[in-house]
Amino acid sequence: MTQAPAEQAAAPSIRTEGLGKRYGRRPIVRDLTFHVSPGEVYALVGPNGAGKTTVIRLVSGLAFPTEGTVTMLGKDPQQHPEVRRRLGAVVEAPAAFYPYLSGRANLRLHARLAGGVADERIEELLELMELGPAADRKVGVYSLGMRQRLGVAGALLTRPDVLILDEPASGMDPLSLHLVHRVLRNAAGRGSAVLLSTHHLDEVAAYCNRVGIMEEGALIDEVDLDRRRDRHRARVDDPQAARSALQAQPWIQEAFLRAGQVIFHLTEPAALPRVAPLLVEHGVGLQELTADVFDLRAYYRERVSAERLKRTGVEIAPEIGRPGTSAGDVPSEERPS
Amino acid sequence: MSALLRMEAGKLFRLSSVRAALVLLLVFPALWAYAPGIFEVYGFFLVSGFQVPALSLLSSMEFLMPLLVAIIAAELVGIEAMHGTLPTVLLRPVTRSSWLLAKLLVLTVLPFLVMAYFLIASLAAGVPYGFDAFVGGTGLGEGGLIGQGTMLPVDAARELVGAYLLAAIALIPVALLSVLATVVTMNAASGALATLAVLIVMQLLVVFPSLEPFLLTRHLSAYTDPVASVGWVVTLIALYSAAFAAAAVVLFERKDF
Known about the structure:
The complex is a heterodimer of chains A (337) and B (257).
Chain A: H1 6-10, E1 14-23, E2 26-36, E3 41-45, H2 52-60, E4 67-72, E5 87-90, H3 103-113, H4 119-128, H5 144-156, E6 162-166, H6 174-189, E7 193-197, H7 201-207, E8 210-215, E9 218-224, H8 225-229, E10 231-236, H9 239-247, E11 252-258, E12 261-266, H10 275-281, E13 286-291, H11 296-312
Parallel strand pairs in A: 3-7, 3-8, 5-6, 6-7
Antiparallel strand pairs in A: 1-2, 1-4, 8-9, 10-12, 10-13, 11-12
Chain B: H1 2-12, H2 16-34, H3 38-42, H4 51-60, H5 64-83, H6 85-90, H7 96-125, E1 134-135, E2 150-151, H8 153-185, H9 188-204, H10 230-253
Antiparallel strand pairs in B: 1-2
């Protein structure tokens, strides 16, 4: 990966300000402002037709915004195509390759277009994406999942600072799905900014830092999963006293009540063992202390349903066989106003 | 740019339209060489192998060659949209203009390759008639197929090469027009059809005599029926080509993918 200057490393790798795209009079993307920092995984989620793919194409420089701005590593990708040397992207689902070339030959071709990548890197990526045995087969005979994995391999060729992927796990079996998400998480761990659009809420909830929820071209909500992930829940005999005691501690970022329980967010996970003694010290009986698992899927349904209800007056039908996903199941404290 | 050029040249020979054209251009001259009813229909006999390439050229430049070149050019651009590989390539540090220029350069050379292949195939089809001196003409010079007495092989060859060369030059703007049409539609079939529609309309515009010297289609047969000097023809073709290429690049630069 290209070594970024210190001041650039702190700046967002991707930034949009009031981004908009319309075809004729029809707006596809409206007033979209978000950013993705180095080492961060940002997932765009939303129903089909919400505008996720258009956003991916606008951000990667394939489409031109009609309103607002996009910067990648501080530069407009349209004005400065050289910034794409530090970009890896998959914008088609399934990833598009020349069908008459083998997987390896396609990667070599992309390596040449990228300005040269060592053969060892190509082999490494073929192995990483579990495509070694199929590397010399023509891409035309690849399955959907294999093409997607080859797409991710192509995106990672140059060890990019920015990774942009549209539905990277589309059409994949569970093992491949897990592989792709693991690879993306590792790329973020090495400092890449990762922007992806997806419908796999359960998978991304496990490792994404932030999720942007889109509906009808607009970003209707942004969820900071890091904050949600580090929350804990305490069932106590005196919730008010427990909240007051926790709020007064410098190692507690926030504490609030939900359904008679205290939800709190630690500034650092190592402080968790200090919670029980603190509550005992304040005369609060602790009955249960556990991680507060955030249900992204339920939250997503709640937000999209509410937005759609507001816009059209029609509510989304409840999800079959999945309790806890109706609008009322997301705690009121979690719901944005 | 050299990597792009190599890539595009390599793609050219994988196009189904190129493969079809190679077969067609091999078979087409043989039709003339072995046609049993040629005298009954056209009133002449072939007397030399040099006449086969001339007949092939005369009978193909009106429609077949522009059609083939337009389809190949449209496929070279449109297949990227069909396979979805265009966005993938444009996400690399490759400028849009350099990507399209590579295709335009390859397609500028294409008519020369096609015509060279066609000439060789036509000569091969003419082998049974021999390539000695003969009484008559190639069909491309003074006197047509009747000629002006004995024609030496070197003169016949010179006439053929000159005509094929001029025909190849006249096909360049057809290829570039097809690129422009495909950039507009981002679909190979639509691009080729739009090109043919433009050429047909141009052919109809001969009813305006003052426009005739400026019509691209009028110069497709410049090798045998020049409406202006060779210098004028080449200049006009260069202007058409530059205009089509520039328009294609400008439109491509602003296109959403």
